[in-house]
Structures are given as C-alpha cells and as structure tokens.
Amino acid sequence: MTRLLHIDSSILGEQSLSRRLSADIVAKLRGENPGLEVVYRDVAATPPPHLSGAYFAARAGGEAPFDQSLRDDLARGERLLDEFLSADIVVIGAPMYNFSVPAQLKSWIDHLVVLGKTFAYTANGIEGLVHGKRVIVASTRGGIYNAAPREAHDHQEAYLRSVFVNIGVKDFEVVRAEGIGLGEAQKNEAVETARRGISALRAA
Ligand SMILES: Cc1cc2nc3c(=O)[nH]c(=O)nc-3n(C[C@H](O)[C@H](O)[C@H](O)COP(=O)(O)O)c2cc1C
Fold it and tell me: Residue 101: CB within 6 Å of ligand 1?
C-alpha cells in the first residue's frame, strides 16, 4: 500500500491556486493508483505550534514535561513527524508569501527537521536520514522568479528544496504556476503550464 500525505498551506481557502493544484496532483496520482492511501493536513486551518525554547529542550531531553500544554504540543509535533515519516509520497501546496513560504508551512517543517530522526551530524557534515520518499510541491507565486536576476529572491522553492534534500529526499519535484499576479493572460498560461506538469508526473 502506497501512502500519500497531502499538505495545504494557503490562507486563501477556496480562492487558493496552490490548493487547486495540490488537489489536482493528488487526484492524478489517485486516478492511476486507486489503492493510494491519502492523509490530508491543512496547516493554515490548524497551524502547528511554533518551536519554543521549552519545546525544543523537552523534545531533545526525551522526558515528558510537567506542563500540560507543552505535553500536548510535543504530542502534536510527534504526530506531524510520524505522519511525514510514514508517507511514501508528500504533496505540498506551497504559495510564495513575502518571498518565502507561509509561516504555518515553515512551522510544520520545523517539526520535521529533527536531529537523530531526519538528519544527523557526521564527520562529513549533515546527513539526511529520510530515504525512499517522493516530495511534490505545487508552487504558486504572483511574480516570476525562474531566471536571474529575480531567482535570487526565491526563498520559497529554493528553501523547500534545501530542507527536503538536506534531510535525504532525492526525489523532489516542483509543479509551478508563476506570474499569476501579472494579468489574466499570464495567469492562464501559468495554470496551463502547471497542468501540463501535473499530467507529466509519473504514476504513484
Ligand atoms: C500574504 C501574501 C504574500 C505574498 N507575497 C508574494 C511575494 O513575495 N512574491 C510573489 O511573487 N507573490 C506573492 N504573493 C502572491 C501569491 O504568491 C500568489 O497570489 C499565489 O497564487 C498565492 O497562492 P494561493 O492562491 O495558493 O494562496 C503573496 C500573496 C499573499 C496573500
């Protein structure tokens, strides 16, 4: 059984393009593999707790803290990591907000990058511990960043790639609709390009 974790992070609800594209990706993969088990998580609707000093210390210490809300946060954080680790495929709806990703998506990622679980420090530097996982990002953005000099301002796709590659993900794909704030014609073309990218994705 192949497991897919579907994440959305746009704050724009029904109006969101990244939500539409991530849903189309999941529908495409599911259509070709009806046995696909899909778990959905909307990090904008239910934001993961921010890391705090107390949280970080408790997680590293491995002992249940006294404080009940901290215990709850730790349990939630563990669930997020387990969900990620048990998925074969992760599809992420990720709009560009202020040159980066939505804060809620960053917060989710902060629960995935965990020393000893998803990466280790070795004599050769950081080693990713996540193997055999496929990550597909549905990227949307108002401007165009696919070439110099604008690409230097892309801390969205570039950031996501850095995170997942550094924790060991080798199979990292992006379906992109960009320039969607630059008028109707550009938006339509961007959506068409993304749809072609979705059709070209290999089956799950
Ligand atoms: C809060 C906010 C910040 C944004 N910041 C940027 C930005 O820095 N660069 C950009 O090109 N587009 C920016 N945009 C435009 C979005 O990336 C674009 O509208 C995209 O489609 C949003 O995806 P969504 O429809 O799934 O929310 C921003 C939009 C919002 C709502």
Answer: no
CB atoms within 10 A of CB 27: 12
3-199: in CATH 3.90.950.20: no
SS3 state at 168: coil
What pLDDT digit, counting tens, does each position of 144-173 carry?
A: 999 999 999 999 999 999 999 999 999 999
Locate 153 and state its tokens.
Answer: 């301002």
Give strand pairing partners of 92.
7, 137
Q: Which residue has the tokens 């705090």?
A: 52
Taking the CA of residue 18 as reference, the ligand 1 atom at the shortest distance is 26
Distance in Å, CA 37 to ligand 1 centroid: 30
3-class DSSP assignment, residue 79: helix
pLDDT greater than 90 at residue 194? yes
Residue entry with tokens 């590293």: 60
- How many residues in total does the chain contain? 204
Radius of gyration of the chain (CA): 18
Cα torsion 173, 178, 184, 189 to 10°: value is -40
For residue 78, give the H/E element and its range: helix 68-85
